[in-house]
């Protein structure tokens, strides 16, 4: 099966009547995912499109792609998470569909979900530039995982100095 046919799992039979902004507001309202989850989801969408250049984001697939990337990012970034069935209800799909979307997404991404600190910060800067045109908002730059990586690296460096 080709990647193009695998990405069709994200297509709806018809275009949802909810705007992307309303859909994102709904996800935010019911999941309370932090801003860092949305930045990581943005990285995932960008990577997905780079890995699968034949894939085009359309009105028929954007909602499912968003709920999938936000759920996967939430699982990667947050300490506590809702079940897939909850994300499915929030996203307006069945639990079975949510499970299928997650699994297909992970395989299409080759399970490469890690976002390092510099990539995260560059996406934050890009988003800040984009959003500042419309009102001067600031994107949260504190990703718990990123901070943990930095502190671990400092710890490893100290250990390396001590053992040398």
UniProtKB/TrEMBL annotation:
<dbReference type="InterPro" id="IPR036915">
    <property type="entry name" value="Cyclin-like_sf"/>
</dbReference>
<keyword id="KW-0132">Cell division</keyword>
<dbReference type="GO" id="GO:0019901">
    <property type="term" value="F:protein kinase binding"/>
</dbReference>
<dbReference type="Pfam" id="PF08613">
    <property type="entry name" value="Cyclin"/>
</dbReference>
<dbReference type="GO" id="GO:0051301">
    <property type="term" value="P:cell division"/>
</dbReference>
<dbReference type="InterPro" id="IPR013922">
    <property type="entry name" value="Cyclin_PHO80-like"/>
</dbReference>
<keyword id="KW-0131">Cell cycle</keyword>
<comment type="similarity">
    <text>Belongs to the cyclin family. Cyclin U/P subfamily.</text>
</comment>
<keyword id="KW-0195">Cyclin</keyword>
<protein>
    <recommendedName>
        <fullName>Cyclin</fullName>
    </recommendedName>
</protein>
<dbReference type="InterPro" id="IPR012389">
    <property type="entry name" value="Cyclin_P/U"/>
</dbReference>
């Amino acid at each position: 099966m080709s990647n193009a046919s695998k990405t069709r799992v994200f297509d709806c039979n018809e275009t949802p009547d909810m705007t992307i902004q309303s859909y994102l507001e709904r996800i935010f309202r019911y999941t309370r995912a932090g801003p860092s989850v949305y930045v990581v989801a943005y990285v995932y969408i960008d990577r997905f499109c780079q890995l699968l250049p034949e894939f085009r984001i359309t009105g028929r697939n954007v909602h499912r792609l968003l709920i999938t990337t936000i759920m996967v990012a939430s699982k990667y970034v947050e300490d506590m998470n809702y079940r897939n069935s909850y994300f499915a209800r929030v996203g307006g799909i069945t639990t079975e569909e949510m499970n299928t979307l997650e699994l297909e997404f992970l395989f299409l991404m080759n399970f490469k979900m890690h976002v390092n600190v510099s990539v995260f910060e560059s996406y934050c800067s890009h988003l800040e530039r984009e959003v500042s045109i419309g009102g001067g908002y600031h994107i949260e730059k504190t990703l718990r995982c990123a901070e943990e990586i930095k502190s671990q690296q400092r710890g490893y460096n100290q250990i390396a100095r001590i053992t040398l």
